[in-house]
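Please check this today:
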Amino acid sequence: MEKENTVKYKSLEFAKRIVKLYKYLCENKNEYVLSKQLLKSGTSIGANIAEAECGISRKDFLAKMYIAFKECVETGYWLELLLSGDYINEKEYQSIMVDCVELRKMLSSITKTTKNNSSLLTPNFSLSEGGTTEQ
C-alpha cells in the first residue's frame, strides 16, 4: 500500500470520500447535477496523478499535475456550492474541505518544485508531500 503521506494515497482516499458523498447526495438529497460534477472533478484528481507518474517527459508530468491541481480547485468550488445550497451542512463541508485543501497544497508544492528543478525526475520516483523523491 502507498505511504499515507503521499499525494497519490491521499488523492485515492479523497476520491473514496467523494464517491460516498455522491451516493449520499443522490440517495438522500435527490441531488444529481452538482453531485455528478463533484464526482467527476473529485475522482479526476487521483486519475491525473496516476497518469503523471507515467509521464513520458518532465513537461508531461507537470501538465498532468497541473490538471490534478485544477481539478482539486474545481472540487472545492462544487463543495462550496453544495454547502450554500444546503445539500451538505457546515460540519460535512469542513470535514471534506480540509482534505481538499491539503491536496491542493501538496499539488501546488509538487508543481512549483517540478517547474523550478529540472533534475527532480528520474526513472525511479514516487510522489511525496514536498515534490518527488527517489525510491
About this structure: The helical segments are 7-29, 33-53, 58-84, 90-116. The CA atoms of residues 2 and 99 lie 17 Å apart.
